[in-house]
Amino acid sequence: MLQKRFTIIGVILVMMLVLAACGGNGNHPDSSGTAASPSPEAPAASPSASPEASASADADTLTVHTDKGDVVIPAHPKRVAAAYYHGTLLALGIHPVGANKEWWMGSPFLKEQEADIADIGAPVDVEKVTALDPDLIVINDFALENYDQLSKIAPTVYIPYGSTKNVKEEVKQFGDLFGKQAEADQWLADYEHKAQEGRDKIKDVVKPGSTAVILNVRGKVLSVLGNNYGRGGFPIYDALQFKATAPVQEVIDSKEQIKEISLEALPQYADADYIFLCINDDPDQSMASELRKSKIWSNLPAVKNNHVYELDYKTYLYYDPVSISGQIGTIADLVAKGGQ
Fold first, then answer.
1. 251 φ, ψ to 5°?
2. With CB atoms counted within 10 Å of each terminal CB, which end of the chain scores lower, N or C?
């Protein structure tokens, strides 16, 4: 993923003009953040400029400067259609009226909050969005081709996919962008509290500095995952503070956050104290079967020591802020109980 930063500059435009005319000095609050994406299957992002937001003369609106031009949005939107990022908006107390159900909804940690959110299609269905009468639309690259149509329905903010390092930066950036700084700070504080609780749960069974690898099986494909590709990555490496081996760290540091490997290369990447295995909900389970039957698998240190934990695909696929926060405790519980 590209790791460009979004810079949010809150400026009261009228005061700037007055102060400039009077030769006075103004205050320029400056805060920054980046927006990540909770994507089940995440392609690499395309380069784009950093959006910026500034207060308008009208206290009821904000002006957002994006790749698609300046967009005036409501300061307190009531009916948001989110072709992406709905989990991040929910974390900040913004409840969308519509979101992409097939691709991005379905996290067990968002079940109640998503219950009354209408499906706007995958890819986004312009007619469904129109029927919701939104006052703000939020999209990323997956709906970019529909930008012109969507922007005729309501102010549309395009936040490029993959422009973040992690969910913490995403929450901070969205808090700044939508005037939810207090909610963002609260989420970050809650996250750190849950992270400490998770570490306390496993401290008696996991030695400090223990290494871990996340393996993903999709059909015939075996992959190593980084810390920002779902499947429990961020809770494992950030919240619970498992360490990555050198080859895994290269995957974490990459834009793609995923590396396909052969079964023969597995010892190079999975020479770790703990293995977290996530098998996609795929009709083809050939690689999963071959993996478990192989001597390569049975000879791995984590397998020998019963330090393998299978992560349910439908539970750990998601990496929006709400899901990540919830996954900390469930992963800690798995580790505390012992692996297989």
1. -70, -40
2. C
- Describe the strand order of the beta sheet including 118-119 as a list of residue ranges: 118-119, 98-99, 80-82, 136-139, 156-158
Assessment of whether the complete model's pTM goes beyond 0.85: no
**Is 189 a domain residue?**
no
Residues 118 and 220 in one domain: no
CATH no. for residue 227? 3.40.50.1980
Pairing between strand 69-74 and 80-82?
Answer: unpaired
Q: What stretches of 179-293 show up as alpha helix (H) in DSSP?
A: 181-202, 233-234, 246-253, 266-269, 286-293
Q: Residue 269 belongs to what domain range?
A: 197-337
56-59 own/partner pairs: CB under 8 Å, 24+ apart: 56/13, 57/12, 57/13, 57/14
Count of structural domains, the chain: 2
Over residues 188-237, the pLDDT tens digits come to 999 999 999 999 999 999 999 999 999 999 999 999 999 999 999 999 99
What's the angle, vertex CA 13, arms to CA 8 and CA 17, rounded to 5? 135
The string of DSSP codes covering 262-275 is: -GGGHHHH--SSEE
Report yes or no on 188 lying in a domain: no
